[in-house]
Design goal:
This protein is an alpha/beta fold and 270 residues long. The chain has seven helices and 14 strands. The strands form three sheets. It has a six-stranded mixed β-sheet with strand order 5-4-3-2-1-14. A six-stranded mixed β-sheet has the order 6-7-8-9-12-13, covered by helices on one side. A two-stranded antiparallel sheet has the order 10-11. The model has no long low-confidence stretch (mean pLDDT 96). Pfam families: CN_hydrolase. Belongs to the carbon-nitrogen hydrolase superfamily. NIT1/NIT2 family.
């Protein structure tokens, strides 16, 4: 399976409409790939909180329309990053879209862990409540968005749901880039899965983005890594490697679930 990660730059001098059009052309240029991935909230910028309300759109809004045509033209599975979704009741969600090569909406994922510590995204957006996997011909994708990366239990849930490749769409700040690399490699090692981690580049709302999108194999080896600026990574993945890794080093079989604290309650309960 050939995967391409489009590390698009979000800078305040470019309009959302212009960036949407430019991203669609970048997707079309990846016509030789099987899967194309875009970053989190690339339309507005992950930290451009003041634009969330004005740029929110329904699932079948302008971003879906542009990405649907681009996926169909390129003949690729497209993880179109995430958009600010406005639900029917007016609530906002950070929602990832996955489109089939026919341009049809194959899956959505509403980000579960919202970043901000009672500010920003954490108060402006509602949380998702469901894990999402997408079955492709050679891989099953598990979807995660940015801050989700810090919660390994989400990824274990995706493993239990059959995921073999984790797709992490992110708008990660440059000041914590070391965490970005470390956590993506950790998720790959502990879940014995490929990790395709696509981040924003550029600077918006005064926040420099990390860039450095990367592809990690099930042993934690970095197969490809972008620089800080706008870039495209294209990597060929061996769909057999996840099963081979899990068979050669069957650590997942030794998981012990339902552990209890000394007081008798299950670990993590309150």
């Amino acid at each position: 399976m050939r995967a391409s990660l489009i590390q698009i730059a979000v800078n305040e001098g470019e309009s959302v409409a212009s960036r949407r059009s430019r991203a669609a052309e970048l997707v079309r240029e990846q016509s030789g790939s099987d899967l194309v991935v875009l970053p989190e909230l690339w339309t507005v910028g992950a930290f451009a909180y003041e634009q969330f309300e004005t740029e929110a759109e329904p699932l079948d809004g302008p971003t879906y329309e542009a990405m649907s045509k681009a996926a169909r033209d390129a003949g690729v599975w497209l993880h179109a990053g995430s958009v600010v979704e406005r639900a029917g009741d007016g609530s906002l969600y950070n929602t990832a879209l996955v489109l089939s090569p026919a341009g049809e909406l194959a899956a959505t994922y509403r980000k579960i862990h919202r970043f901000g510590f009672d500010q920003g995204e954490a108060v402006l957006m509602s949380p998702g409540d469901s894990l999402t996997t997408v079955t492709l011909p050679e891989q099953t994708l598990g979807l995660a968005t940015c801050y989700d990366l810090r919660f390994p239990e989400l990824f274990r849930g995706l493993v239990d749901a059959g995921a073999t490749t984790m797709v992490v769409s992110a708008g990660w700040p440059a000041r914590r880039r070391a965490h970005w690399t470390l956590l993506n490699r950790a998720r790959a090692v502990e879940d014995q899965s490929y990790v395709l981690a696509c981040a924003l580049a550029g600077t918006h709302a005064g926040v420099e983005q990390s860039g450095h999108s990367l592809v990690v194999d099930p042993w934690g080896e970095v197969l490809a890594e972008a620089g800080p600026g706008e870039d495209v990574l294209t990597v060929d993945l061996d769909p057999r490697k996840v099963a081979e890794t899990r068979e050669q080093f069957p650590a997942l079989k030794d998981r012990v679930l339902g552990l209890h604290t000394p007081g008798g309650a299950p670990a993590g309960s309150s």
